[in-house]
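Dear support,

I submitted the protein below through the web form. The confirmation email said the job was done, but the results page showed an empty box. After a refresh the structure appeared. I'm attaching both so you can tell me whether what I see now is the final result or a partial one.
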Amino acid sequence: MSQPQDADARRMVKPVICYPVHTLPEPDMELYSSARATLTKVAEYIAPARDAVTFNVKAGQFFRIRSVEGSQVGDLNLWNANDLTERFYSGKTRALHGTHITTGQRMWSSFPALRPMATITHDTLGWYGIDDFGGSVHDVIGTRCDPYTHALLAGGQYHNCCHSNLTRAVAAHLGVPAAQAEPLVHDVLNVFMCTGFTRDTGQYFMKSSPVRPGDYLEFFAEIDLLGALSACPGGDCSSEHSSDVASSYPLLVEVFDAGEGALEGWRAPAPNLYDGGHGL
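What the results page shows now:
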């Protein structure tokens, strides 16, 4: 295909940030930091290898996802515990913060609430940055490994994809059939996963995660949360997922209370102020 005469000029047009975030309400990281010094663990949950677990976190609590036995990535879903129609919105989180998120950035909820669900308060992999391949950790790019794409690309039936793991966990938590739970499962935060886009073809890639036992990603719950975490069958995602070939390890979820008075002045964020009229 021939190029127009001004092809190079068109390519040289400078990009514009779609959503300037200088007007976003900023989390009070100083308050969260001081509260972190008062934390007491009150609950813990294990996502077994190639399986998932659900957990509850109250507004004002902290929670951590921790590597405990080996290099392992996890797929995280969050819902408003009091209204499961409000759930994590990975696409809007990506539009506001970028392809990967870390300390001081937030997981935003779906329309019409569009508010912070959780704020990242500590990231032991925050040092990683962006590598020479364009890879980074904790992505809001990938959707989650699922049995439908597996059947499309590889054929056969595989039931330990993160989508299926999350579906089983939510079904068990709610006491409903899988078919009723599955529509609640949504695009994830890929915790510890190292990903990016190839520069030649623009394809989504994964590479060996830099996570090691003891590393964790910590969040502050801005609202009451129901969470579900799958320990991905791909393990550290250095080679493949949606199979039992990779070494896979459990992940630990820990929930913490802050000390009395440590969060004085904090308030849970209200739902979005748009009136819902849509011009009608």
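Response: this is the final, complete result; the empty box was a page-load delay. The mean pLDDT is 97.
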